[in-house]
Amino acid sequence: MFYKIKCVIKGGGDLASGVAYSMFKAGFTVVILEIPEPTAVRRTVAFSTAVTDGFIDIEGVTARKSEINEILPSLGSGPLNYIPVVVDPQSLSLARIRPHVFIDAIVNKKNYGTKITDAPLVIALGPGFTAGADCHAVIETNRGHGLGRIITSGSAEANTGRPGGVMGHTFDRVLRNKKEGIFKTDHKIGDYVKKGDIIGSVNNYAFKARIDGVIRGLLPDNFKVKYYTKIGDIDPRNDNAFCYSISDKSRAIGRAALEAVLININEGRLDIL
């Protein structure tokens, strides 16, 4: 019966996709809203990839690029066998979908317009939101003891600005653009690289790997980038299977969001069945 519960997720990056995956597998009707040119680098585990490729499968769950008029009549009327991804950068379709649950999962460390009145239950990921003011619950996204904690009063931990450590590597595993222009690359996600290898370039400025490892995330060739855009990341664990499965962090956050929804249903604050 959970298919009657419509859950709209703003964003389709890798963390948002962990949320979408958990909600979909639990039986909810899930719709993802995305921008026309998604900037997620971990594209092999991001449902946002459906915007450019038409569809993507992540661990047996398929997402398809869809039009709101195409999907609207079927939402909540029966189980969907896929997750629709709708290009809607302003979330204008919220008023038409009228979701029971709205989850802001763009993880931009700032609130770009989400309101506690957007749905009966509004959840946000990470810093930039205050539970009880602009949403009903916040999910902690910072690695550590509190990862996945459901916050119903107050905010998540402040943004540290420091990438999560993998085998002791933090800033050196992440590639960030220092120029505005067009990103060019001959590499793909899953490639093994050595320290010093050229990963790509922007306006002829070459980006080199600073560690050995596997390219776990990478923007596509010919992608227009702004200053300080994240263009990729390298995983020093040297296992390219990690490129194609949901991460521990994404899975923890996804299950926390699912728990938050189930708590609200169980306690009668989301009476929709």
Provide an overview of this structure.
The chain is an alpha/beta fold and 273 residues long. The protein is built from 5 helices and 17 strands. The chain is globular. The strands form 3 sheets. A 9-stranded mixed β-sheet has the order 3-4-5-2-1-6-7-8-9. The model has no long low-confidence stretch (mean pLDDT 94). A hairpin with a 2-residue loop joins strand 3 and strand 4. It folds into 2 domains: 177 residues, Rossmann fold (3-Layer(aba) Sandwich); 66 residues, RNA polymerase II/Efflux pump adaptor protein, barrel-sandwich hybrid domain (OB fold (Dihydrolipoamide Acetyltransferase, E2P)), CATH 2.40.50. The longest helix has 19 residues. Helix 1 packs across helix 5. Helix content is 16%, strand content 27%.
Give the SSE layout.
Blueprint: E1 6-10, H1 14-25, E2 29-34, H2 50-53, E3 55-58, E4 61-66, H3 68-71, E5 83-87, H4 94-97, E6 101-104, E7 121-125, E8 137-139, E9 150-151, E10 174-176, E11 181-184, E12 192-193, E13 198-202, E14 205-208, E15 213-218, E16 223-225, E17 230-235, H5 248-266
Parallel strand pairs: 1-2, 1-6, 2-5, 4-5, 6-7, 7-8
Antiparallel strand pairs: 3-4, 8-9, 10-17, 11-13, 11-16, 12-15, 13-14, 15-17
